[in-house]
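Extended Data, panel c. Modelled sequence:
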Amino acid sequence: MRINFKETLSSFSSFLYKNQGWIFPIIVLSALISLSALQISGTSAGIYDYLLGKKPVNLIAGKPRPIRSDEWVVTTPFVVSQYNNGMPAKSKDIGIGQDMSIVADAPYTDWSMLFRPHNLIFFLLPIGFAFAFKWWLLSAGLALSVYIFVLFLYPRKYLIASLLGSIMLFSPFIQWWYQSATILPIIYGLLGIVSAIKLIESRCRRTAIYWSIALAYLAVCFALVMYPAFQLTIGLVSLVTLLAILQGRGTLHLLWQRRNLFLIFGSIIIAGTIMGLFLWQHSDAVKASLNTIYPGHRNISSGGFDIFRLISWPLSYLLLHDNNSMILGNNQSEVSNFLLIGLVLMPFLIYLSIRYKSTFSKLEKSIIYISSGIFIFIAIRMFIPIGDQLFSLLGMSKIPHERLFIGLGLINFLLLLVAVSRRSKKLPKKWWKPLTSIQQLIFFAIITIIFSILIYATVRHYDIPNIGPLESVAVILTFSVSSTLLLSSYEQFRIVGLVGVLLLNILSTYMVNPLYRGVGITDNEFSRYIMDAEKKDNFYWVANDSSVLSAIMVASGAEVYGGVNTYPQTDIWRRYFPNSANVFNRYAHVRFLFDSSPQKRSLSLIQDDSFFVHISPCDEMLHDLNIRYIVSERPLKSSCLESNRGGIFDGKKIYIYTIKNNSTNTRK
């Protein structure tokens, strides 16, 4: 039987064309399933291998990032600990107990987990598969939420939607801050806009009710992210974008219809009731978190932000090398940003929308003008010392200025969307001629000057030594060409420009997170020793000046004091340090520091989210808290410590001491 390859290829091409809307989702979901099945994630937990003197055999590509400590020191140990301990709503292994529904992004057994769907997989799969699935689910969710949003506004623009979804995913800010607290607000914000518009514009009452329920669900999911620094910014930009789209589509008046108001308020009431129940159920932990000095009572005045921190984004690729970790004035995460090409194009888009009105729809003009307005609003907050009362009313006084970058990233996405999707002219046969038009050459010259100023000012301000003239010219021209193409009157050129933007994002982030098989943190001899010891008794452990050892013990299922307290355990600290509330009343990495003969136990603040507990091994506080074991990377000398039970674990010398006269096997 002969196969007609030409006919088969033609049929396959026809099939792809008819179903092209599914190509990008299938690629994304296939990658999600494949990487999860192989237990591959982007965790930096391989750092534990290095710190224990062990070769990271599970590291496939790239290298672990120490700066990603929110992941490998905080989130990953909590996730593994919860999984190994049956996912309790309140973990009894962290000090006197910690409510896992607050701040910590880990699975727990409670009805509210239904509104944290990214963690439900831990109830279904073994830890290695579940961990990888959750990791890539965030990527898939972000790319597909952008894809859905773009197709909602511009049906059948599948290639543009795919490119924009990929650009958002590979943005430096997203990769350096890769965690649910960063990504989920964007996902829920975009899907919430679509749900709200569907509700408002629906002609069918039953359909509107369904969208009302979806909106309420997304609102609760958004609220339970519980990271206000990103939520408030995304919430503000999303609300303004919703109004801009309704105005541009000519359906803003439908918002005030009785049915729509009833359904919207119904969604608010449902979401508010669910959140009220959650807050009531977890009121102690919520109050403790809200009443903290950091971040609860943090207050940041308007203005004073370093403008060079904002304009340095064209050089984001330099952050990939650890030697450049502080090259832009701070660590990689703190200085990371989106490639804000859309903001560079903003004045050009305003000009074009006025000069060539027919090529811009009412929707596109609305998005351009309102996005420009919200950008100015955020810029005032960052650079001009006015409006503190207004910003405080909006909750923005709690947001560090650099966290506002996430709002700029969403605005940037909207402007790129308008730039590439607006009406297009028919490309002439001599396709190269439009590239040499006077207007395009003027745009290219102005944009080149803009990028030259941005890069020159950044290099000079930070005195960057390892970027020469040729490299600077290459970076400037790459950004300038891609940006200028996005201003073309022809969609084909604009798509080429968008591909250029995607490549720039990939080149700036492709090595940020490694590829690592498994979870890693408990795959070592020290963790196995802790697990075996825990089977024999339930005494508490504490690490001497080591966040790494604390994290491993938490993940291994040990009862641990110290480590990460997502909210202060004030019953402990107030009892033993009554005059140090300004130190312990915060989200903090708690590090015990043992001294053989301190004059008095004390606390000292290291930074906003970290403090030392200075204490003697003989202190009665250790007996009161039922702490029996001290683990240290260096030898300790004290008459209150029994002989070392430690040894060499994967090449790392670790000392394990037993506190004398603490033999009562109880937990207080």
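The CA atoms of residues 596 and 638 lie 6 Å apart. This feature is highlighted in the accompanying rendering.
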